[in-house]
Each structure stands twice: as C-alpha cells, then as structure tokens.
Design goal:
alpha+beta; 5-stranded mixed beta sheet; 12 helices
C-alpha cells in the first residue's frame, strides 16, 4: 500500500511499534494521485501473539495547506528582506521578534544574536536609543509617532513606530521603521543655503559694481598725481592712499567672486593633479613667507566629476590661509585619505598649519562671510571655498590639531557607480 520511497521509514516505525507499543509516521500511499496519511500503530496481544492495530487519517489537504503556508512565509520573508529600509518587529517590552536584512546590517549583529534582545541593547548610540524611547512611549498607551535623530556617522534618521496586531489577535507588537533621510536633509539645507547665498550674492555683486566706478576714478587720479605724490613731503600720504586703494580693489574682486552665480564646467579628473597645481602656484608666496609646503598625497584616488579651475581655487585659498597663519620657518601639510562617512565613501583632504590654530569660539564662524581675525583680511576667502565645495556636493569643516595649529578638512564624495 505504501509509496516505494516511504516504505523504509514505515517499516522502521512498524518495528518501533512492536518494540515499544506504539508508533506514528506520515507516509504516502501508492497510486497515481499523491495522497498523504498519518499512520498510527498500537501493539496488542491475542492468544500470546503480538499484533498491531493500525489506523490511517488522510492529511492530504493539511499537507497542501502547510506547503502553501511555507511558500507564503518564504515569499513574505524574501519581500521583507528585499526592503532596503531597516524594519524591526518588537514586543511591548521592547524585545526584538523579527528584523529584516537591512536592520541586521545596521546593527552589525547576526539573526541569532539580535533575536530576543532588547532594542535599547543593540548599541550605545543612535538610532537605537531613540528607537527604545519610542517603544516605551507607545507601550504606555501612546499612539504611533515619528521622531528624528542623528547617529555618530552623521546620518539622519526618521523613525516611525506603529501598533502591529498579530494574526491571532492575542498579543500586540510594534513595527518600527528606520528611514535614512540624510540626503533629503542635506538637500533641504543646501537649498536654504543656496537661497540665502543667492540673495546675498546679488546684493554684494550690486554693491561691488557700484563701488568699482568711483574706485577706478580714485585710482586714475592717484596715477595722474604720481609725480606730485612722489615728492618727499607727500610720499607717505601717496603710499597710504595707494595701499588702501589696492586693498579696496582686492575686496571688490572678492565681492564679485562671492556674488558670482554658480556656473560649473564639469569634467572628470583627478583631484591629486589639481592639488599639485595649486601647491605649485602658491609656492612663491609660501617661500616669501618662509613657510614650507609639504605635499604627502601618496596613493591613487578615484577620479571625480568636478570643475577643475574652481576646485583649484579652493586649494589655493586654503593654502594661502594656512600660510598666512604660519610663522616664519613653519610648515603647511597637505594630505588625503579615503574614508567612510554618513554611509558614503569620500576622499578626505586636510590642509594643516603649525600656527596658533582657531579660537574655540571662532570654529563655528570660520566660514561666515566677512568674518576674519587677520589684519587686512576680507573674511570672504573661506566663504568662497565653502560655496565651491558645496557646489561639488562636498563638505568642509575647521578644527585644531592636537599638536597645535589649525586644520581645514574637505570631503569630496566618490561616485558609487562611476561610468
């Protein structure tokens, strides 16, 4: 009666039933139509001889439903894992019941390590601490809610939590979704900065244009009276006037540069070559200040899409700034490395000096327009640098070296799938 493939198993259960008094096995019957039965055998004795009383209950439909459930569960798990957004299902007390593959990757734990763990115990930082607070809030009869947080890598997360009723309805769980919105937040900040800088740039450019004509008139007048102002009794006044006019001309040029609308000429290139050109162009100014430029850009870096001339201006301004804050005999160091930050790959460039560094209260204002602590400075050099870096979707920050001196750090994004 038994399907040939199931006969060895059934025979073993028959032996077991005779030996122990009872046996049970699932098996298929022979025939064209596949039918499944649950077979039970119990030992009895008749006139001292052992017999088995066997019963069979057909479970073909149950097996079909079981296969359907297993397939549905596998499809659900595959869909669950396909979602790139971290998703966690927890009990009311915060115990993790289920996570998808994206949540495992974020936690750096295996499925066996994370199952049954409290959500606040996954890590000491964000977004897990905020997630634990949301679970506590909603468990206290709170409704579904949303919260924002930022992790140690600079990524911004939007956390959403809702009640999740189990199919049986006998328990209540929570489903927690962690959306990374770093790109959206950066885009919003970039748009706000662009609007502000566009308005300021228009105003600044208008002022610079208005100043240019009278400034040209003053400069031309000084040229006309050059011989008279060269006389000993007027020479000091003439030199002072010429110096201040040149300072105003320099300020006007920077104002026009700051107010220039972004118009990048994008091409693929190697930033290392751009840095080499910037170092070469600023070599004479560094030598005049008795400052050494040290280039330690060793190793290959990926090519980037960039405006070569604008990016060269960035490094020239940064080198000039470092040289101006260095004492005679000092050194300016230019270096780079490949880093991971906010879930992306970047080329990090550092321009360091051995000067007095930035005042602690000035670090948040370094890139503000017209902010400067240097005599004769316009306060626009680093603002222009920041604007160009942002046009390249990069980031820039100022800090102090532990050994002393200032450091400007520049991050340029590496394309994930360059062509």
């Amino acid at each position: 009666l038994i399907h040939p493939d199931d006969r060895p198993l059934v025979a073993a259960r028959v032996d077991q039933a005779f030996a122990t008094g009872h046996g049970e096995v699932e098996a298929r019957l022979s025939g064209n139509e596949e039918r499944h039965f649950l077979l039970n055998g119990s030992r009895i004795e008749i006139a001292g001889e052992p017999f088995l009383v066997c019963t069979g209950v057909e479970i073909t439909e149950q097996k079909r439903l079981q296969r359907e459930l297993e397939r549905s569960a596998a499809e659900w798990q595959q869909t669950f894992d396909t979602v790139h957004t971290p998703i966690l299902v927890t009990e009311r007390n915060g115990t993790i019941v289920r996570v998808n593959r994206a949540a495992l990757a974020l936690s750096n734990l295996s499925e066996s390590e994370i199952a049954g763990r409290m959500i606040g115990e996954i890590g000491g930082g964000e977004p897990w601490q905020t997630a634990a607070q949301l679970v506590s809030y909603i468990a206290g009869e709170g409704s579904g809610t949303v919260s924002h947080t930022k992790d140690a890598d600079g990524r911004t997360w939007d956390l959403t939590i809702e009640h999740f009723q189990t199919p049986g309805g006998d328990s209540q769980r929570f489903i927690l979704v962690l959306w990374e919105i770093t790109g959206i937040v950066e885009l919003q900040e970039s748009l706000r900065r662009s609007e502000t800088m566009s308005a300021m740039g228009t105003l600044v450019a208008g002022v610079a244009h208005e100043v240019r004509n009278p400034l040209f008139g003053i400069s031309a007048t000084l040229d006309a009276y050059h011989e008279e102002l060269s006389r000993p009794e007027y020479q000091e006044c003439g030199d002072t006037l010429r110096r201040e006019v040149n300072r105003l001309i320099h300020l006007m040029k920077e104002l026009l540069e700051y107010g220039k609308p972004p118009a990048l000429t994008i091409e693929r290139g190697n930033v290392t070559d751009v840095v080499d050109e910037a170092i070469l162009s600023r070599g004479s100014a560094a030598r005049a200040a008795h400052v050494t430029l040290k280039n330690v850009l060793n190793g290959e870096v990926p090519t980037l899409l960039m405006d070569r001339s604008r990016l060269r201006q960035v490094f020239e301004n940064l080198i000039d700034n470092a040289v101006q804050h260095s004492a005679a005999g000092g050194e300016v160091l230019i270096s780079h490395s490949l880093v991971e930050h906010a879930g992306r790959s970047w080329i990090e460039y550092r321009v360091e000096d051995r000067g007095d560094g930035f005042a602690a209260n000035d670090l948040d204002r370094v890139f503000e327009p017209f902010f400067t602590r240097r005599d004769g400075g316009t306060g626009l050099g680093l603002s222009i640098v920041q604007r160009i870096v942002q046009e390249h979707s990069g980031r820039i920050s100022a800090s102090n070296r532990p050994e002393g001196g200032g450091m400007i750090t520049l991050l340029l994004p590496i394309e994930e799938n360059p062509r």
